Amino acid sequence: MPQELCVTPLSQQTILITGATDGLGRHLAEHLARSGARLLLHGRDAGRGADTVRAIHDATGNARLEFVQADFASLAEVRAMAARLASGLERLDALVNNAGIGSGGSKAPRALSRDGIELRFAVNYLAPFVLTRALLALLERSAPARIVNVSSAGQQALDFDDLMLERGYSGWRAYCQSKLAQVLFTFDLAAELRGTGVTVNCLHPSSLMPTKMVMQAYGHALSTIEQGVEATARLVTDPALDAVTGRYFDVLREAKADPQAYDAAARGALRAATERMVGAI
Fold it and tell me: In this structure, are residues 137 and 145 in contact, taking their beta carbons and an 8 Å threshold?
């Protein structure tokens, strides 16, 4: 990172957390709110957003909380939210791409987003791709800044002949493919932004935390929300990671992602496919 870039104190930072009205995002927001940072809390339901802002304010005393609304199953809504933020913010110090949907369990039916895209690919990968791209100029102006993509250890190689999983669909495969796509995007973007002062990392925050999404699909948990919050907050705030970019972490430990993530041809194929999909919508 260039030496002239000074890290903004956390209490003075502006941080956007997607999927902040429930689960990991909700608990991460409360954790970061205790630092005094200005938090932009994304969700798709205005009522739940207002309740979240109120509850976190009551718990932390932080009044610098704002709800931002968009349904990530609609790229038009993602773009509209990004445009509002890009025009209304002076700075953005961190973007946490946390919003997503799980596998839905073993019998989850194949579903489409409002744009006609396989739903898990659309919400877990395409929406954060579009949001991040739309906010890049703001993040670069705010450098040093961080992008944190909440992925998963559940990863399966992308089939570029059937990205929409029209043959032999399973919710688990759809989820794992979308989460690996996030990792490929992380590595690709980190290389693109190297030297700008904007770092890009991704993580598996913890296995089967007791979120509503996990409990509905599996009925049990293996780790705690606090473990996931610690791992994710570390990528947002730890000074030791100021110059670390293009990495995948398994909770607190740097780890290896699926081999496809290190294949430059695969990353190029995903980038091209993504640009075709996004450009056509």
Answer: no
Strands across the sheet with 253-254, in order?
65-69, 38-43, 14-17, 94-97, 145-150, 198-204, 247-250, 253-254
Closest C-alpha to 99, from 130, 125, 61, 133: 125
What are residue 38's DSSP bridge partners? 14
Contact 167, 123 (CB under 8 A): no
Q: Which alpha helices (DSSP H) does the chain contain, by range?
A: 23-33, 46-60, 75-88, 119-121, 127-141, 171-193, 212-218, 225-237, 264-279
pLDDT at 6: 75
The answer to whether residue 248 is catalytic is no
Taking a C-beta distance cutoff of 8 angstroms, is the pair 41, 53 a contact? yes
Tell me the residue type at 158: L
Active-site residue identified among 169, 175, 218, 248: 175
Q: Which residue bears the tokens 């980190």?
A: 190
Domain borders along the chain are 10-279
User: Is residue 275 within 8 Å of residue 190, measured between CB atoms?
Assistant: no
pLDDT in tens, the chain (281 residues): 344 567 889 999 999 999 999 999 999 999 999 999 999 999 999 999 999 999 999 999 999 999 999 999 999 999 999 999 999 999 999 999 999 999 987 789 999 999 999 999 999 999 999 999 999 999 999 999 999 999 999 999 999 999 999 999 999 999 999 999 999 999 999 999 999 999 999 999 987 655 666 555 556 556 688 999 999 999 999 999 999 999 999 999 999 999 999 999 999 999 999 999 998 66
> Which pTM was predicted?
0.94
Residues for the chain: how many in total?
281
The CATH number given to 10-279 is 3.40.50.720
